[in-house]
Design brief:
mainly alpha
């Protein structure tokens, strides 16, 4: 059990630093090429790790499992990751972290829908507190250009974490029985292939700008390479490992610590505003998250 706790907390730490770097990179690289760049760095790190550990690159799984992993990669990486980057560009790191509190209630609700795990009154109240916290904390700051950006950003961030919750829980049984490194590698490989196909179909004349911009902008690598190693590589595998060794609720509450870490780092490193409304909203959301994850 202790190793599961360690994985889940580590994921929150890695993700927090990655989000701060993603916010900085987002000033110059749009969401799609940023996501593609970090996916490529992540799979390179995963392949190296598999080679070092001597893990196989092909494993015997039923076709249905491969299909589930493919769908999980498309919605959880190709769709959700660019949404998070877009939300960061609109909200800044601290408000985006507040919207992230939708993650724990999403895990619980999806557990109910997918696995029949019943919702308690505590979980319902906790979910209400999370939503209340997001609305209370959703205040205009110097980083936000308009009220439209505020609400679109919150919707993007919350929706992305709901999608991520679906994508990971739909393959929970697979990664509990298989190598975490292999499962992560397969998902990122599928995501890279799908993004290449999508951009070549939608934007055949501007592929460089729409997909490969991160590779051409070497001036951003000092930010983007650590971002990719900390987020898609380290945070991703420790995130999956947390769900492998812990119940979903326990893992989710440890993951939710990233909200606190991101807000502190955004204040210290990015000089983002720390308003009273934002503090109240964060406290409400975290209390709601705790109620959901522990009952």
């Amino acid at each position: 059990m202790f190793i599961g706790d360690l994985y889940a907390v580590s994921s929150a730490v890695f993700w927090s630093f990655s989000v701060i770097l993603m916010r900085v990179a987002g000033y110059q690289i749009p969401p799609i090429p940023l996501t593609f760049f970090k996916n490529c760095i992540a799979i390179a790190c995963l392949v190296i790790a598999m080679l070092v550990l001597g893990e196989p690159f092909l494993i015997d799984l039923p076709v249905t499992d491969y299909l589930l992993l493919t769908v999980s990669a498309v919605i959880g990486i190709c769709v959700a990751d660019p949404m998070i980057a877009a939300a960061l560009n609109r909200l800044g790191a601290s408000l985006q972290a507040l919207a992230d509190c939708a993650y724990s209630p999403a895990i619980t609700c999806i557990g109910f829908l997918m696995f029949g795990e019943m919702l308690t009154s505590w979980e319902l109240v906790g979910g209400f507190l999370v939503l209340s916290g997001v609305f209370v904390g959703a205040t205009m700051t110097a980083q936000i250009k308009s009220s439209k950006d505020l609400w679109i950003g919150l919707l993007l961030a919350a929706s992305a974490h709901i999608i991520m919750a679906v994508s990971i829980l739909m393959v929970r049984d697979i990664f509990r029985e298989s190598s975490i490194l292999w499962v992560s590698s397969y998902r990122y490989l599928i995501a890279i292939v799908v993004m290449i196909i999508w951009v070549y179909i939608r934007h055949p004349k501007v592929v460089k700008e729409k997909l490969f911009l991160g590779f051409y902008r070497s001036d951003t690598w000092l930010t983007m390479i650590p971002m990719a190693i900390l987020g898609p590589f380290l945070a991703s595998i420790t995130w999956i490992a947390g769900f492998k060794y812990l119940d979903a609720g326990r893992a989710a509450i440890y993951n939710q610590l990233s909200t606190v870490f991101i807000i502190i780092l955004a204040y210290l490193l990015l000089k983002e505003q720390f308003t009273v409304r934002k503090v109240v909203g964060i406290v409400l959301a975290l209390i709601g998250t705790f109620m959901v994850a522990t009952h």
